[in-house]
Amino acid sequence: MELILNNRDKSIFIEQPNNTDDIIHEINQLIDDNLIFSHLELNGKEIYSDFKHYISVHLASIQSIKIIAKSQKTFINDSLLSAEVYLKRAIFLLDDVVDNFYNNPSTDDWDDFKDLVDGLQWIIQMLNSISNLTEKPENGGAYIKINTELTETIHALGDAVANQDGILIADIIYYEIIPTYKQLEKLINKTIDEEGRRYDVN
Q1: Residue 24: CB partners within 8 Å, gap ≥ 6?
Q2: Residue 201 lies in a domain
Q3: 117-138: per-residue pLDDT in tens?
Q4: What's the burial of 174, exposed, middle or buried (CB within 10 Å: 0-12/13-18/19+)?
């Protein structure tokens, strides 16, 4: 089995690996301290979570594992680009979620709400990851402020869900999440335009 870092920046060959722990250890050894792990490619398939389980299940058939790791600057840029795409879509959809929760939400509406919470948690996780880096956007303080606001908001949502209070859920989305998402979208646009890059611009 061959382990390859990015575009063959480094590579090693493991003969007949016995267990996944040894493979994970070798993967970690390949990643420099100045790089941030992104995901794995196993026989061409991209894997973003449950790495150990996936390797264990497919151990006999894995010929190569490509380790994708990024510089801090690239990690920030790519994370913000992904967040920008998500926020554009979320802001567009949230008005319908608000309307439905003001009017006796259905099972489908609760499914949409779960998607909203998943997205909110992903945004918070992304902002936490960036705040923990040594290299940060120039307007890093603004990101920390928004992250704090969103973290408080998700706690408030949890209380509203515990009480099955659809009106309060709608209020939180309309008065807190949507304005904060719009603010974050503008902040991300500014950071990418001034410090990052968009890959689809010729």
Answers
A1: 51, 52, 55
A2: no
A3: 999 999 999 999 999 888 999 9
A4: middle
